[in-house]
Write a sequence for this structure.
């Protein structure tokens, strides 16, 4: 119970500091750029590979059903909607939880049990401003970019397998895809990833800062932060999808 209250207290402090103009202006830009440099190369290649095979597998299961219904003009539209609204944001978040979230937790947990956090207090450096805010902001900045890369990669791989296996002209595929693509959906998808990134980074950092019990505690904190982040993402995804895509009219009604 005390551990939970401590985590909640740190989360409140982080949110307060994020909306404090003085803390944002005094943010160490070198530290922020360093976090972006760590996150981007470590995640980009994995995200591209995941998105490529996601497009292949999803298309492999879906396209043949549309061909059976003689609805070839709907294939690109349905895949675009699925990737943009749900699959790309959620699966990109899952990749970053395992790749970056666990890294944040284990790094901060190690600093905690080796008393490096206490040294920051001695130097009059607040750990939240110095360690957590750059990580949270960097995560929130990078998430929409990786989501867009994932979306584009998935569409390209889907077009590829449609052309190779089902002899569907890429021009037909992309005309169908772009006909259902709206700027509002792109903004909503980006907003989703920003919210996901905010929760993933905060959970990962807070679980690291509240680690206790030596090396065993580092492992427990890392495992716990990954599980809690995954559960949080799926719950938040349902809530956001319910309110952002609650229009009962089909996007395909114009076809």
């Amino acid at each position: 119970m005390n551990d939970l209250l401590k985590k909640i207290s740190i989360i409140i402090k982080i949110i307060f500091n994020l909306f404090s103009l003085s803390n944002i202006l005094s943010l160490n830009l070198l530290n922020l750029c360093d976090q972006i440099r760590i996150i981007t190369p470590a995640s980009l290649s994995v995200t591209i590979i995941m998105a490529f095979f996601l497009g292949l597998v999803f298309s492999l299961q879906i396209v043949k059903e549309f061909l059976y219904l003689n609805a070839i003009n709907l294939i690109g539209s349905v895949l675009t909607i699925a990737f943009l609204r749900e699959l790309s944001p959620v699966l990109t978040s899952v990749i970053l939880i395992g790749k970056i979230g666990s890294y944040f937790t284990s790094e901060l947990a190690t600093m905690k049990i080796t008393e490096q956090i206490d040294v920051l207090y001695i130097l009059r450096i607040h750990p939240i401003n110095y360690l957590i805010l750059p990580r949270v902001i960097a995560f929130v900045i990078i998430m929409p970019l990786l989501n867009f890369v994932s979306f584009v990669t998935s569409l390209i791989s889907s077009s590829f397998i449609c052309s190779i296996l089902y002899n569907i002209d890429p021009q037909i595929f992309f005309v169908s895809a772009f006909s259902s693509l709206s700027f509002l959906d792109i903004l909503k998808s980006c907003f989703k990833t920003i919210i996901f990134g905010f929760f993933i980074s905060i959970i990962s950092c807070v679980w690291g800062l509240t680690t206790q019990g030596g090396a065993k505690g580092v492992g427990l904190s890392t495992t716990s932060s990954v599980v809690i982040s995954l559960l949080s993402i799926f719950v938040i995804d349902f809530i956001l999808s319910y309110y952002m895509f609650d229009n009962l009219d089909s996007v395909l009604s114009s076809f």
User: Anything to note?
Assistant: The chain has a mean pLDDT of 85. The CA atoms of residues 159 and 171 lie 9 Å apart. DSSP finds nine helices and no strands in the chain. Residues 10-243 form one domain.
